[in-house]
Amino acid sequence: MEPGSAHRSGPEESEDDTTLLARVAAGQAEAFRGLVDRHLTTVLAVARRMLKDDAEAEDVAQEALLRLWRNAAGLELGPGGVRPWLRRVVSNLCIDRVRSRRNTMVTDAVPEVIEPASQVRHLAERELSGRVDAALKGLPERQRLALTLFHYEGMSQIEVGEVLGISDEAVESLLARGRRTLKGLLKDEWRGLMPEGDE
What number is the average pLDDT over the span 83-89? Predict the structure, then answer.
């Protein structure tokens, strides 16, 4: 399950996730390797954004994939295949790790001005993901988790609040402050994305 393993070719490449999952449920290790090759990069990226520690992210990614192996027979896939299930499992595992490290309370006031959500998305689309990921690692823990779940995992503010165990208002506050911090860390790139007169 090494990220840098040699690229495999075989029937697994052309099979969809549902077919591969059925083969995994039947105990076919080669089908599981096909799913790992297909989804490991995404799973690792999610874990690395949520956790500051690469070794921890790799542990979480491996645990998520092991759960896929163990639960293959009982999974019902939607049109997105295995990926949405894996992303959800990885997100939950990361949250569990963060909670086990420390249990913090969020008592921040809601800011008066909320930054548009589209700006973080545009930064990623402008091939700045490496710099954005590095900047995310510098954010306070709760801001980093909220931004990752909201912008990268596509959760609503209410869903983020449920995962983090905080109110919708607290999530809104975390997102706004996280965006402001990212804007400061990536000010040159951000300026190019802002309409004139909107800075």
Answer: 87
